[in-house]
Amino acid sequence: MNIHEVVPTKAQEHSDTSRAAAVAIEVNAGTLRAAVLDYIRAVGPSGATDEEIQNRLAMRANTERPRRVELVEGGYVADSGRRRAGSSGYMATVWVAAVWVAA
Quick check: 22 and 11 in contact, CB under 8 A? Predict the structure, then answer.
């Protein structure tokens, strides 16, 4: 996957609003994906949680999380194996650029 390509985005198939949102975001998804990847690369091995990415990029969860999932599926981003507390107090996955994950 090229992070900038326009690819069909995933939707909750039972939801007409989810399907409409997925179609609407397709044009911008590559740019948003690149922004998420740039930030994860910029923070280096310390990584970032979804919440940290959302806060830094001023991106809603329903926009950021699918882009991060696409990056994981494309092999650009990986679970670091570490967890960090979010604002809720619950532990969250720390995501890193795939280069920081030992093979």
Answer: yes
pTM for the model: 0.78
CATH of the domain at 71: 1.10.10.10
3-class secondary-structure state, position 48: strand
- 64 part of a folded domain: yes
- Is 32 part of any domain? yes
Q: What is the 3-state secondary structure (H, E, C) of 21-33?
A: HHHHHHHHHHHHH
Contact yes or no for 81/43 (Cβ under 8 A): no
Report pLDDT digits (tens) over 79-90: 999 999 999 999
In the DSSP assignment, the letter for residue 49 is -
| Residue 33 structural domain | 16-100
| Helices and strands in the chain, H and E counts | 3, 2
